[in-house]
From TrEMBL:
A Pfam family assignment: Usp
Chain ranges of the UspA domain: 1-140, 148-274
Entries under InterPro entries matching the protein: Rossmann-like_a/b/a_fold, Universal_stress_UspA, UspA
Source species: Mangrovimonas yunxiaonensis
Family: Belongs to the universal stress protein A family.
Protein name: Universal stress protein UspA
Regions crossing the membrane: none
Length: 276
């Protein structure tokens, strides 16, 4: 994790994310890319080209000044920090910036949403998770430590998630963490005990050539996958939830939803998503 992107909106949540990214950067000899996206109003965009250009420059300079003040943190001492300002708030651009700079992690602070506000407005966190091709670490509060020791990895144990599983396990075990696997059994996709164990066994044999991790695998019954993951994480006192995302967009996302986005949005624990 040598290059870490932190979307900045100057809130306390982005401060938490920036501090977390700073700790991870120090641990890995990495650098932080602080990204702010301007939200230019329709009024600015509909003005004449010269007037629009002048006002856009004004907002850009204002953002740069505020950036300089926001990045004046003691915890950033000794870390290479690159401020990046984009003119428009387009969340797919976070992934584009990550690709342009060969970043390998996005750290994002989020307060989460619930109820009708989530349906109509959505959350910035969900949008970044949906578009990102690299892992996204979502945090809700200032972390006491980034030494994650008890990580829960939630999966449907499908063949397409094998590569992501191997990537996640290598990352967390490299940090000294114990990885706990969980399969959530729901009424809509019910499997009996033998079927669940066989599914996980086949997956592990394909991914690692053995079934040693069955000792660290739990089978949880709940009404939804999201509830099962979060309840089990609390039960085993996990300090991080890791989950794969398919990154569905558009109408498929609206009707089917995304478990990873919901978990990232509603969990109080840190959540790291991996794109399949």
């Amino acid at each position: 994790m040598k290059k870490i992107i932190v979307p900045i909106d100057f809130s306390n949540y982005s401060d938490y994310a920036l501090e977390t990214a700073a700790v991870i950067a120090k641990q890995n000899g990495g650098e932080v890319l602080a990204l702010h996206m301007l939200e230019l109003s329709d009024a600015v965009l509909t003005k004449g080209s010269l007037e629009q250009s002048e006002e856009a420059v004004f907002f850009l300079k204002l953002a740069e000044k505020r950036f300089e003040e926001f990045l004046n943190k003691d915890y950033l001492n000794g870390i290479e920090v690159t401020p990046i300002v984009k003119h428009f708030k387009v969340f797919s651009e976070v992934s584009e910036v990550a690709e342009e700079h060969s970043a390998d992690l996005i750290v994002m602070g989020s307060k989460g949403t619930s109820g009708l506000a989530e349906v109509f407005v959505g959350s910035n966190t969900e949008r970044v998770v949906r578009h990102s091709s690299i892992p996204v670490l979502v945090i809700k509060d200032r972390l006491e430590s980034t030494e994650f020791k008890n990580v829960i990895f939630a999966s449907d144990f499908s063949e397409e998630s094998t590569a992501i599983f191997n990537e996640a396990v290598a990352k967390f075990e490299g940090m000294g963490a114990t990885v706990h696997l969980v399969y959530v059994n729901t009424p809509g996709r019910f499997l009996n005990s033998t079927e669940m164990r066989n599914k996980v066994s086949d997956f592990l044999n394909s991914a690692e050539g053995n079934t040693n991790r069955l000792a660290h695998t739990s089978y949880v019954a709940d009404y939804t996958v999201e509830a099962g993951i979060l309840n089990h994480a609390n039960n085993i006192q996990a300090d991080l939830v890791a989950i794969a995302t398919h990154g569905r967009k558009g109408i498929a996302h609206f009707f089917e939803g995304s478990i990873s986005e919901d978990v990232a949005n509603h969990a109080t624990l840190p959540v790291m998503t991996f794109k399949i």
